[in-house]
Amino acid sequence: MRMVKAELIERYCRGELTPDEHLVFVQWMDSDPALRQEVTEYMQLSDVFKQYRDRNRLQEKLNAIHDEMETESFRFASQMKKVDVVNVSPIKRIFSIGKNQFSKVAAAIAVLLVAAALVGVGINRLNVTRSQSAYQELRREVEDIKRKQSVQTAGGAAAAPTASTSTYTGSGIAIDPSGLVLTSHHLIAGARTIYISNQEFESLPMELVYSDASLDMAVLKVVDSMFTGFAEMGYGFRKSVADPGERIYTLGYPREDMVYGEGSISSYTGFEGDSASYQMSIPVNPGNSGGPVFDTQGNLIGIVSARNANAEGASFAIKSAAIVSSLNASEEPEFRVQYSGRLRGLDRPAQVKRLRRHVFMVKVSN
Amino acid sequence: MKQVQPVSEPDLLDALRRGDEEPLRVLYRKHYPMIINLVVNNGGSLQEGKDIHQETLIAFYERVREPGFRLECSIKTFLYSVARRLWLKQLQRRQRFGGTLNDAEVYVEVEMELVERREAGFRAMHEALEAMGEPCRSILKDFYLAERSMDEIARKFGYTNTDNAKTQKYKCLQRLKKRFFASMPGQIE
User: Fold this and answer.
1) Domain layout of chain A by residue ranges
2) Closest-CA residue in chain B for A104?
3) Which range (A118-122, B110-114, B135-139) has the least confidence?
4) What is the arithmetic mean of pLDDT over A83-111?
5) Shortest CA gap A241–chain B (Å)
6) Residue range of the domain that includes B122
7) Cβ B32–A3 below 8 Å, yes or no?
8) Residue B98 located in a structural domain
């Protein structure tokens, strides 16, 4: 009975035999070298299993330490950016030429270089010029669209838009029930009035409370006296970095109704190696700017910023870690960053149903 | 954020020996730049640097906890030496080694035999497990790695009773054993 034997070996090695069984088993082992050999092998295998377990656990711990360190280096970078912009660039320049000419000045410069690598976020961002034609920000010009529609539907007879102002729309996500909404800086830059709306709120006036142009993020606050707060959020920022291959989804307002889109993270870095954003493979359109990107468990991993006009299916999102550290480094707005929420058990439609109350169209006139 | 008090190296080693893993956090952050630097200046990427750094700390942690282990140099030198050795090995394995390493730190010869043997065991196990078909791979992982009960496993895989699941598990284990020992010659004492 082979299986009984295998079970006995296992129970012997785990010390699970009864005293009587133990006696019999030991005697059996003494008389059967083949059995003894099998026991030895089981012990070895069991040791390796244990090492494997320990090793995986340790690896997870180190990864957590790493993520924590990375998050803090974001914060460090955004503080540094404000204080010491001028000194940063030369370091970067050395870094790019220096890789092979290192040995002489190595010891001293090396440390600086690694510091540069660590705070790469801030540095890269400074060098990203957004004017390149490939980088297309995703605010939607409303007047433009209106005009086209009127031409199509009424053959040009409809009243032409009279407003001399231009109106843009984008998307935003609530980050605090008190009325804070996160969106893109490029959307609200130069705005005279900002309103948000969704199925629940017809039109809420907003004011700008914080913006970080280099990170292309901004935080708005509801200024309506009748406003009593958003519903409980249930979601939060994700602390760890999302990995290429992870499934993600966006919610946003590329048109009058909220649109769901899904795809995946395709790179740790965004446009031209910008380390504060991800590259994603997900359909985004004008109007998606500032809209949230969620992982499968409904944690906020970033906000949509732009797409590459020259490359099919390459869009970008600012990482939540960078957003959080920018917020942490600023004095306004004062609020507590909420981390991963309670949507993980829900399936996608249920998550979206919960989230849609907190996703807004952001309308800007300037 | 938690403030980390500076700790003397002997205290730190003692804590690690007791199984306290907190010092790993301090060591990880403190020596990350050094190891990244080593790897990046010798033909590696940031990601490879991160991997080497983690492998180094794991090896260090395992060595420190070996009975009778004594550290003859500073932790920093030891970590650098281990990382250097690991990276050198990887370069050689991939035939990317140009003959010399750019060193920015002093290093010592480190005894790596046990670490390397353990690593070999780890790899052999990983490969043996991944080479298994289903449901064997999942059953073995659930029982021996995730330490789930056989009742739970029987339910999960739809066995009519726990004994059937057990029989299947032992069959799987037998197969795993064959694969594992076949790729680990000389390990059977």
Assistant:
1) 134-366
2) B104
3) A118-122
4) 39
5) 14
6) 113-182
7) no
8) no
Tell me if B3 is assigned to some domain: no
Tell me the shortest Cα–Cα distance from A10 to chain B, in angstroms. Answer: 9
Contact indicator for A291, A251 with CB cutoff of 8 Å: yes
Written as one letter, the residue type at B45 is: S
Q: What is the pLDDT of residue A88?
A: 34
Whether B135 maps to a domain, the answer reads yes
Give A41's contacts in chain B (Cβ within 8 Å).
Answer: 177, 181, 188
Can you state the angle between helices B46-64 and A33-83, rounded to 10 degrees?
A: 130
- Which pLDDT score, from 0 to 100, does residue A153 have? 39
User: To the nearest 10°, the Cα dihedral for A229, A231, A234, A235?
Assistant: -60
The CATH number of domain A134-366, selected from 1.20.1250.20, 3.30.70.270, 3.80.30.20, 2.40.10.120: 2.40.10.120
Q: How far is CA A30 from CA A1, A44, A93, in A?
A: 19, 19, 72
Render A79-116 in DSSP notation, one character per residue: HHHHH-HHHHHHHHHHHHHHTTS-TTTHHHHHHHHHHH
Q: Do B104 and A72 touch (CB under 8 A)?
A: no
Tokens 């660039």 sit on residue: A89
Cis amide prior to A333 (ω within 30 degrees): yes
Give CA–CA dist A3/A18, Å, rounded. 18
pTM: 0.47
> Is residue B132 assigned to a domain?
yes
The domain tally of chain B equals 2
Question: Are B52 and B123 part of one and the same domain?
Answer: no
